[in-house]
Amino acid sequence: MANIPSQRKRNRQNEKRRVANQAVRTEIKTRVKSAGAAAESGEADAAEKQRLAQKRLGKAQAKGVVHKNQAARRTSRMMRRANKAAGVGSDTE
User: Domain holding 37: CATH number?
Assistant: First the structure.
């Protein structure tokens, strides 16, 4: 444990941020999974779930919770799976 007051404060702040970031990452995973499941089963609100998942990924990237490339990669994979489930386009163009 640190003895310097500023380092104690820094440790408290880091712990708060860690917990908050963990919640955001968990929400992203949940939303991407539900969007994928909705696309696979052909639910009517699949497009809305994809939109919300993309929105959460973008917000997390903007706040620095996830890396820019990671957010782009996850969005791309999610949309590719959704398009494949919907039968739109092909990967070999």
Answer: 1.20.58.110
